[in-house]
Specification:
Largest sheet: 3 strands, antiparallel
Order of helices and strands: HEEHEEHHE
Helix content: 25-40%
Length: 110
């Protein structure tokens, strides 16, 4: 997959002094019926390939009421077990469990 270069207007936030004044955010909502874990991992891989790595800072899942840092994530019990097992993206393990159970889920990157 080849990702085209985006214009600077889309990749650099507008700064006023040393503060971010305006930032463009991509909000990708995907509605699919019966997603598998493999589908979910594919979507995460795709998003991570397109999004500049320094822009992936936080995540949100159904179990957490607030955004959490990817660098220092708040982990659910499933997330802690996944981290101990060396599973990639342990912060999304609760989402994988919801998918296995056929339940609705929320998974967002900021």
């Amino acid at each position: 997959m080849q990702v085209r270069n985006l214009s600077a207007a889309l990749t650099r936030p507008l700064m006023v002094g040393e503060e971010v004044a305006l930032k463009i955010m991509l909000d990708l909502t995907v509605y699919i019926e019966g997603p598998t874990e493999r589908d979910f991992e594919y979507l995460l891989d795709l998003y991570e390939r397109v999004c500049p790595p320094d822009r992936l800072r936080e995540f949100k899942i159904s179990e957490l009421p607030l955004w959490s840092s990817i660098a220092q994530p708040m982990l659910t019990a499933h997330g802690r077990a996944a981290a101990s097992a060396g599973i990639a993206r342990p912060h999304f393990e609760s989402v994988r469990e919801r998918i296995r159970q056929g339940r609705a889920f929320e998974a967002q990157y900021w």
